[in-house]
User: What shape does this take?
Amino acid sequence: MAKPKASAVMKQGKLTPWLYLLPALIVMTFFIVYPMINTIALSFQNKDGTASAATTCKEGEPCWGIFENYRYALTEELDTTSFTSFWNTFWQSSYGNTIQWILIMVSGTVILGLLIALLVDRVSYEPLAKSLIFMPMAISFVGAGVIWKFMYNFNAGRTQIGLLNAIISGLGGDPVAFISNTDINTFMLIVVGIWMWTGFCMTILSSALKSVPEELLEAARIDGANEFQIFFRIMLPIIMPTVVVVITTMVINVLKLFDIVYVMTGGNFETEVIATRMYTEMYKNYQTGRGTAIAVILIIAIFPFIIMNIRRFMAQEAQR
Amino acid sequence: MNWNKINRVLNKIPLHLITILLLIIWILPTLGVLITSFRPIELINTSGWWTFLSPKHSETERFTIDNYVDAIVGYRGSDSYLEACASESPPIGFNCNISDLINPRGMGRSFINSLIVTIPATILPILFAAFAGYAFAWLDFKGRYILFAILVGLQVVPLQMTFVPILRIYANVGANGTFWGIWLFHTGFGMPYAIYLMRNFLGTLPKDLFESAYLDGASHWSAFWRLAIPLATPAIASLAIFQFLWVWNDLLVALVFLGGTKPILTYQISNMVTSLGAGWHILTAAAFISMLLPMIIFFALQRFFVRGMLAGAVKG
Assistant: This one.
């Protein structure tokens, strides 16, 4: 016999469900759905949305017609005269930086989160340890920005009051301008992100690890497997679905990341990422068309993950 | 027997060492700022915070709360606000009385603004999401599944996609720089995740409960208020913490919709960091003022926070 529907017992007017949904649907349509469509339309127009983007082309310069804002968004930061110059400018551009953020921050938070989850599982002070690692999640990026700017503080020729430079000079090295040195500054900002988000990965991965059946691990130990084999051959395969969820969540978070860069460098010293560049175009240069084009590029990058989320949801529903 | 025990303890030493080292690395940056925020300005700029107990500072006062006073009233001189007020001529822009607590440049005023922004922006989405979550979990309607799948997708739409159109509408209706404008924006954006969480939680409540309530003649309205809401308290708590921290810690939305007209904490601090170049004594104190409430909530209600996160946190 087919399962009765949840509400089969209760007669309901045809309109009733929609009355319950109404407030939510109204605010979501107004604040998410409509603006998305409007943003896409604006990305094909000039800076104040009064004419087609094609009218902003200048003679003698490259032009993509109606896609002119996308030409600007995609190629302006790049020097395409030779492959070397292209390669170099790409890794200084907002896209290159965003890719660095994704690669380093996602692998950093997931690996560290997993490592810490495994470590604290074996000590008696696990709750305290987890709280301390997780704490940065509760504070704002702005607060974290202040904390780390102080860590990275650099005084030319005076006493170093930033801990990192004090350690470096204590060991006999030369103090480093972590924030303005363009070779390392993006990495230094990513460290802040890792500090904040490792706790998130740790919490989720730790709860997955704890769901691995103890008998399985005992059986493997009796068979003489060492801890590394147990982790890589048994635990990791079992928690893999969770690892994938954590990775996708982190990639989405990093793609949208704005505050750390805005607070610590304002996008200067070649640290711009997609989200800060969009803000600059929109609210500093007042180039609505270009800003919205960058926003559209951002959502295109996120789109595969939207599809993944929906498919994961459908798979879960099928199991219920 | 005994040797085994000793061996086991010895084997665990590297584990403890690595764990404790990681914990120290994690906590040091915050600790440094906390200690600095209580040190006098001269010491902050001439010595590292880790020397705070060193005997060479024994002649001066090691700790002070002046930084917090300066941050709260927004005083940025090289002396302290209390000193300046005690001197002959009071500092420009200050009254040296209780009214300075709400000086627009100070953290005191922004703290209040942050509260005004955050509380309604937490309650509204939860209320709307509870209604919608109930409909998705216990009511039958056409397109229920598709609509919810779309909602799952909307969870990860970046804020940036919506700013320009909303700003234009807000400019037309005079909502830019108003509290209600930012309440509604946060409500709209908090919705997909909030509904997702509420629906999943309400859906796990026992079916018999609702069926017997309906058989007893309860309407959906009373089943919602008398049954669903009280039983959903844990989910509502998780959601409230999440939304509260999200709004409290947000910078981007405040930057775009409120700006300097009603500065909230994150806005005020980012301004100090980026443009005004306030000293470390004020910055560190200001950072701690902004972290105070989130820290209290986090340590007091951690279990709800973690539960909400495990239920699928892909928001923003």
DSSP finds 13 helices and no strands in chain A. Chain A touches chain B through 97 residues (CB under 8 Å). The CA atoms of residues 67 and 236 of chain A lie 45 Å apart. The first helix of chain A runs from residue 16 to 42.
